[in-house]
């Protein structure tokens, strides 16, 4: 029943007066329309493409913490797993592959014996460190830790 009610509300034509009042409230100015305005005709603001790209990689859970963990130098998979607490092996492996694919992390294999694999930040990854530090500072000053739980 709620879905059908939504359809009627969404499908209801918007009068010029309603659009004008909403526009006035949003912009603080008098908006005047000579013809009916539909939702499709309004231009919605778009997110910056570079910010969207950055968050498509760094916005995934654990990615920022992995980059932060590698900021002090190369680490093995096992050390990364211990450093980034509560991450599963599968997710750590996926995130490392994604970060390597994005050019932020380098996977280095030492044939041994024994064979060892370490992960290190690339130049691009190291350039993220000051940004992550600023983000951490902002979070400490502006976010309530209790709200996260």
Automatic annotation (TrEMBL):
Keywords: DNA-binding, Transcription, Transcription regulation
Gene3D superfamilies documented for this protein: Winged helix-like DNA-binding domain superfamily/Winged helix DNA-binding domain (1.10.10.10)
Gene Ontology molecular function: DNA binding
Keyword Cell wall biogenesis/degradation listed: no
InterPro entries xrefs: HTH_HxlR, WH-like_DNA-bd_sf, WH_DNA-bd_sf
Residues covered by the HTH hxlR-type domain: 47-147
Pfam families xref list: HxlR
Highest taxon in the source lineage: Bacteria
PANTHER family linked: HTH-TYPE TRANSCRIPTIONAL REGULATOR YODB, TRANSCRIPTIONAL REGULATOR, MARR FAMILY
Protein name in the entry: Helix-turn-helix transcriptional regulator
């Amino acid at each position: 029943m709620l879905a059908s009610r939504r359809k009627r509300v969404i499908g209801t034509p918007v009068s010029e007066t309603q659009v004008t009042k909403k526009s006035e409230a949003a912009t603080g100015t008098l908006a005047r329309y000579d013809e009916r305005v539909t939702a499709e005709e309004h231009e919605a603001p778009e997110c910056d493409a570079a910010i969207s790209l950055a968050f498509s990689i760094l916005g995934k859970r654990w990615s920022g913490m992995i980059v932060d963990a590698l900021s002090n130098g190369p680490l093995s998979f096992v050390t990364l797993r211990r450093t980034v607490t509560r991450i599963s092996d599968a997710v750590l492996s996926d995130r490392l592959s994604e970060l390597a694919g994005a050019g932020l992390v380098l996977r280095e294999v030492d044939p041994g014996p024994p064979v060892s694999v370490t992960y290190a930040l690339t130049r691009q990854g190291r350039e993220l460190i000051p940004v992550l530090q600023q983000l951490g500072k902002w979070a400490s000053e502006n976010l309530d830790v209790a709200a996260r739980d």
